[in-house]
Each structure stands twice: as structure tokens, then as C-alpha cells.
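Check this.
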Amino acid sequence: MIREERFLSSHRPYAVDLSSLRIRDRGPAEVNAVWFRRRNGVTAACLGTLWNFQSPRPVDALEFVQRHTDGRYGGRCEGRWDGENYWGAQQPEMIYQHLNLLRPMLANYSEIPNGWDGWWTFRVPEVQS
């Protein structure tokens, strides 16, 4: 992934929590991520994870996102808020946690939420001639 200086929704950017890298003995490494998506003319704030199998294992989340080049699956969405409808967790406490992040995120569309690092994208940078 590459870090872009400004938000461009067409680049499908993600903001990541650089303190959230999880590595298991088996399976992919993952980091928490948030992003915006537009569907049928409605913008939604999303949260979930970015995951990737990396060898050797990344030492931190920054190395993880810098080496993560396969964006075909996008983020694994765990919660989504479009200003009217919530989709995601079924446990009330988890729903409240998600909405505490997603509501202000959507209200401040295109701003990186406090504590997150972004905007990261899988888009290949254009070569300047």
C-alpha cells in the first residue's frame, strides 16, 4: 500500500490503527482499519480489518501496510453506518462501540479519525513525466 497526502474516494483509501497489528502462528496478519464506501449514491463509514499473508512476518503495522500489495479483497468489514442504518455486530456493547467511531467519522467525511493513520491505498501511483 502507499500513503497518500489527500483523500480521494476513487482511490478507495483506508486509515489504519498502527497499534493494532495482530500476528498468529497460522493465518494472515491483520490490522484494524476504517474507510468510506459509496453504494447506490449513499456514503457509508466502515470499520474492520485489512489482512494479508506476509513472509517474513512484519515487525509492526507500518511495515505491514507498506508490504501489503494485494488489494483485491479490500477490507473485511465488521461494521458500517450510512447515517440511517447500521450493519454489523449483533451484541449491543459492540454496536455502541462501532457507532461511537462511525457516526463522527461519517459526520466528518473525508477526515482521518483521531488516532488513525491514513490515507493508505492499493492504487499504483501515477508516474510523472
